[in-house]
Predict the structure.
Amino acid sequence: MEPAAQAKLLRFVQSGTLRKVGGERHEKVDVRLVCATNRDPLDAVARGQLREDIYYRLRVIPIHMPPLRERPDDILPIARHFLAVANREERKDFGGFSPQAAALLSGCPWPGNVRQLQNAIRTAVILNAGETVQAEMLRGVLCPADRAPAEDRAAGKSGCFEQMRMRPLREAERDLIEVALARCRGNVRRAAELLQVSPSTIYRRLKSGAQSASG
């Protein structure tokens, strides 16, 4: 949060009042603030990125949430929740996960945490149909390092990078966008969800690539 915004938030926390955009008076409000960060707040204070006064104003009941890999018992319940949400949104009727799919989910280290799990489930639902999510539906959306046995990951990573063909980043980015569009049958919104970008980003990258090719 920018310093100016931090100052405004601090005034709001202290006074409990705000003025709506276009309003002429301050109004008293009764709200509860829930703040989250993936950084160390005290380190941010030391670096001058977070105001110390606002940190101590907000730090009332701190809750530490370990990454998903440190609480494997939560993986399947969360996955089932995301499956139910994706079923409703995509009008699918997956009833659950096969034993192999459940084992694959439980054994994944999930470096991208809960958001990665959510996107993996959603992608599998979008690209497939059936009564049960099968392991092969998930293997297509998980990165190779996630699928490899633990003892093979270190060797697999180095071998993978050694075999990669180095090329300009814009070319690799364009190819990835084209693959996502092909999987989603040209649906830009769904492709954007797979890549975790906005649809406008895809349009902008494709337009830039077309201009470079014509130039």
About this structure: Residues 144-164 have pLDDT under 50 and may be disordered.
